Amino acid sequence: MRILALKRFANPDVTRAVANLVWLGLERLTQIGVAIAISGVLARYFGPDVFGKWQYANTLLLVLSPITWVCGAEILVPTIVHRPPAQLGTVLGSAFALRLSVSAIALLLTWAGIGAGLTDPVVGAMLAGLAVTMLFREPFVGVINAWLQSMTYSKPQLLTSMTTAIAKALAVWLLVRAAAAPSRFGWLWALESAVISGVLLAYYMRRHGGKLGWQVDRSLFRHFATAGTVFWLGLICMYLFLKLDRLMLERAISFADLGRYSAAQQLNENWITLALMLAQTLAPAFVYRVQDLAQLRRNIWRLTAMTAVLMIAGAFVLDLLAGFIIRHVFGPNFEEAVDIFRWAVWLSVPAGIEAIGNLVVLKYQAKFVLLSKWLLALAVAWVVNLLAIARMGAYGALVGLACGYLAAASVNVYYIRYKLRP
What we know:
83% helix
C-alpha cells in the first residue's frame, strides 16, 4: 500500500495538480488579504458616504462583468484538450474574438449609461475606470488562463495576479497619501488588468516561439457563442442574486449607510470565499472522481456536515470579534457596521452548504438545474427584499440573502435526492 501511495504521489499529473492547488490557495489568500487591506484604507480615506459610492460602483461592475463570461472555461478548456495542438491558435483566437466583441459592447454600453446620467455622478466617475477591466479580464486573461488550465499549470497567471494585487495595494496607499480624487482609484484596477494581460500574452508568445498565432474560425466562433449559454445565464443570475441586496438598498438608504453595510458584507464575503475554496479543493477527490452512487451520496452528506460545522464555528468566532475587526479595519466611522457584520457572518452557513450541494450539479453538468436554482434564489431574494427592506432596512437585505441561499440549497437537495437515489 505504501508503494502504491508513493507511486501515486510520484505521478506527474498528480504532482502537477497538487502544486496547482497550492498556488491557487496562495493566490486566493493573497487576494482576500489585499482586498481587506485596500478596503480599510479607502474606508478611512473616503468616509462612509463616498465609500458607499465606491462599493456601489464595484457592485455594478460585478453585476455587469458576468455578461463578458460568454464561452466559459467549462466549454473552452475541454475544447483545447480535445483538439490537436496544431489547432490551439484557432481555438484561442476564436474564443478571444468572441469575448473581446462582447466585452467591448458591455464597456461601451456601461460608458453610455454613465454619460446618460443613470448613476450618481461620483459613482459613474468611479465605474468609468473600473469598467475597463472588462476589456482585459475575459478576452486576454480568461483565454490564456484557459490554456494554462488545460495543462493544469496556472502558476504564471496566479503569480502575476498576486504580484499585481500587492502592487495595486501600494499604489492605493500612494494615491491616498497624495490626496487623489475618488474617481482616479478605479483606473488602478484597469491598469492592473492591463498589466496582467500584457504579462500573460508575453508568456504565451515566449512559449510559442515569439508568435501569437491566433486565428478566427467562423464555425468555431459560432459554436462558442451558443455553447454554454445556459451555464452563462445561470452565472449571471447567481451574481445578480449575490449583489441584489446592495442594488436594492441603494434606493432605500443613504450612501453612508450603504457604505457601512457594504463594509460588513465585504468582510463576510471574503469569509464565505473560504467555504467556496474548501468546496473546490475537496471536489476532485470526493465528488468528481467518485462513480459509485452510494459512496458519492455518503461523501456529499459528510462534506455538508463538515462544512456546516466549520461555518458555524467560524461564524461564532467572527460574531464575538465583530467589534474588534470592524474598528481595526474600517475605523470609528463604521461603528454601525458591527451589528450588521454580526448577523451577516451567519450567512456563511447556508452559503457553505449550498456550495457543497452545487458540486453534484456541476459534476453532472446539470445546466438547467443551475439556471433554475439561481433564478429561484433571485426571485425569492427580490420578493423578500421588497417586503423586508422597507421594514427592517439593511437587516431586511440580510433576510433576503438568507432566504435566497436556502432556496438555492433546497434545489440542490432535491436534485441530489433525485440523481443519487438508491
